[in-house]
Every structure is written in C-alpha cells, then in structure tokens.
C-alpha cells in the first residue's frame, strides 16, 4: 500500500519559473509584472505561454496589444523582480521607480528589460482561461541573449545563468 498523504493542490508543480513579463499599453505606457506560470508549449513553431490574472494591470495591455516579452531573471535582478512583483503599474511607473533599464523590442511593441540575461519577444496567437489565470500563448518572434551565455551552435547555456 502507498504511504503518502494528500498535499495541497495549488501550485503543486515545483520549481515554478520566475520571470518578468514586460508589455506596453496602447497609450505607450510600459509595465512589467512578475509571473510564476510560464513555460514552453511548442517547439515548431516556438511558442511560450504566460499566465496572468485578469485583475492585473498588465493583463489588459497584453490583451489589447497582443504582444509581450518574457525576461528571464537571474539572482542579479532579484531586487528588481521583487519590486516589480510587489507594486502595481496602476499606482506608479514601476520600471522607472526601480531603475529598470529598458529598450524597445525589435519585433514586437513591448519593452525589453535589458538587465535580464535573456529576453523573448512574443506575439499572442491565442489565449485560454484556465481558472484564475488567462494563459496567453505567444509565438516567439526573436530571442535576445547575453553573448557570454551562448554556445557555439546558438543555444543558450542555462548552466551559466543563476536563475531565481
């Protein structure tokens, strides 16, 4: 007989990725939020999904503009991650308040958090309400990576990134 007990159902898969999703509203205002529900969902074509609660300020930006950037966060950006995950863009310009360095995306109309080692520009191709979160499925348009993290074949060497 199995000797196991019932565990909590909420967020039972670990580790959960910790990324910053950046976006730009139709009014040109930039924002970013901390996201724990994120993952690959297709390799041909490359696609990722991010889960965002509809009450979040960035939710409507992504819903309207149909694009976002997934910024992978190393321990060097932990302070920025914590700040962006604990303040609302409704109340302030969070990116300016925490001193985040940003650049315009090359393929999508959303900001890139340039201090993050990897930035994945995405165009929304679909979305699904899964309960508490809407999962935005983004086609990967381009990936920016710190050159020191690239292998000779162009793959990212994740062993060189101390992800939070």
CATH architecture: Roll
Number of domains: 1
**Biggest sheet statistics:** 7 strands, antiparallel
Helix- and strand-based class?
mainly beta
One letter per element, helices H and strands E, the order comes to EEEEHEHHEEEE
Strand order of the largest sheet: 2-1-5-8-9-4-3
Rough outline: globular
Please tell me the overall pLDDT. 95
**Low-confidence blocks of residues:** none
CATH superfamily, by name, is Electron Transport, Fmn-binding Protein, Chain A
> What is the CATH level 1 assignment?
Mainly Beta
β-strand number: 9
Helical content band:
10-25%
Your description of this structure?
By secondary structure, the protein is mostly beta strands. It has a single domain, classed as Pnp Oxidase, Chain A, CATH 2.30.110.10. 13% of the residues lie in helices and 37% in strands. It has helices spanning 57-65, 78-86, 94-97; strands spanning 19-24, 30-35, 38-43, 46-52, 67-72, 102-104, 111-113, 118-129, 134-145. The strands form 2 sheets. It has a 7-stranded antiparallel beta sheet.
């Amino acid at each position: 007989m199995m000797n196991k007990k019932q565990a909590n159902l909420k967020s039972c898969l670990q580790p959960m990725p910790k990324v910053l999703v950046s976006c730009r509203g139709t009014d040109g205002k930039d924002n970013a939020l901390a996201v724990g529900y994120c993952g690959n969902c297709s390799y041909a074509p490359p696609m990722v999904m991010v889960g965002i609660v509809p009450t979040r300020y960035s939710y409507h930006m992504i819903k309207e503009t149909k694009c976002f950037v997934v910024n992978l966060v190393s321990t060097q950006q932990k302070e920025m991650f914590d700040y962006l995950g604990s303040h609302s863009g409704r109340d302030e310009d969070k990116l300016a308040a925490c001193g985040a360095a940003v650049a315009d995306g090359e393929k999508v109309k959303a900001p890139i958090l340039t201090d993050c080692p990897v930035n994945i520009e995405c165009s929304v191709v679909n979305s699904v309400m899964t309960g508490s979160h809407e999962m935005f499925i983004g086609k990967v348009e381009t990936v920016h990576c710190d050159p020191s993290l690239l292998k000779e074949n162009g793959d990212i060497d994740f062993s060189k990134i101390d992800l939070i």
